[in-house]
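just leaving the lab so this will be short. below you get a single protein, a line of residues and a line of whole numbers that encode the local backbone shape. id like you to explain what the token line says about the fold, in plain words if possible. thanks a lot i owe you, the record is right below:

…
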Amino acid sequence: MRPDAGALAVEEVTDRPGLEAQRPAWEELWRTVPDATPFQSPAWLIPWWRHVGEGSLLTLAVRHHGALVGLFPFYRYTRPETGERLLFPLGIATTDYLDALVRPGHAPQVLDIAARHLALRAGCDAWEWPQLRQGSPLLALPAPAGWAEEVGHADPCPCLALPETVDGLAQRVSAKTLRDLRTVRRRAEQAGALHWETEADGIEEPFDALLRLHAARWRMRGEDGVLAAPGVQAMHREALPALHRAGLLRFHALRLDGEIVAALYGLADPPSRRARRLYFYLSGFDPALERLSPGMLLVGRAVEAAIAEGLAVADFLRGQERYKYFWGAQDQPSFHRRLVPPCAAS
């Protein structure tokens, strides 16, 4: 039965304590949305706002007879160089999938009331929403009357459909890639004592190693890397334990002669989902050991562990780096949507 639109109520969440107060209902709503990623969970976005977000919070909580049926995690930001006032989703820049959450069966009414409320209250020159997946609620949210709208392609996310068994990789991944994986594993075994660890063995030391290894690789390119900012590091340090408790964290760390020389930070859909995904978020390895192909070792280990866990897709997230296609990944589209009110468009 379709919900009564007259029973919907919109609450504006405009400060951090208010956002934190949404956590229990937000968590429950997130678990009911079948295609919501870990990037829409409170475990990810509350630390992001606390440590990375700038501007003023304007998150909408839509309730039906008191139950949370829609969450639109937005904030307003003014670009200093232009003065343009923008409505962004929480998580922008450090998050590969951005979106709202709408309880199944409530979409038309919830999207309509959210659009009308934002048109009246956001007070922005544009709504800017990148990295939206096909089928995203933010792609379906109706444009207010008279507004200009632009939808274009954003960075695609290469994805590999996983077989039911590791042996089935031969049908998904090229024979050359699998031969190379066997070769680099033999080479690594000859280099010293190898030991693999996961998030179950601890989080803090592997994350510290990831910071060090990721920074070392980017320094070779003359850049800082995405983990350089103290706020970004603080966000992940707060998020990691919550992600682990929620069953969403996947960490693979490789020790060589006792020292962590490669690490992969991934996320996974919760066990209650169907067609669960592994999301490759970040990795790092010792540049001095590049001859051992630690990147291939990390991906091979994570893919095989995902198959053993029964995950259906390895999602390499945005970016078209060559190694992703060596594993047979296929581009999945994502989109950028911009909405501009009549006064700003003119």
Residues 184 and 190 are 10 Å apart (CA to CA). The chain has two domains: 5-156+334-345, 158-317. The domain at 5-156+334-345 is CATH 3.40.630.30 (Aminopeptidase). The longest helix spans residues 175-191.
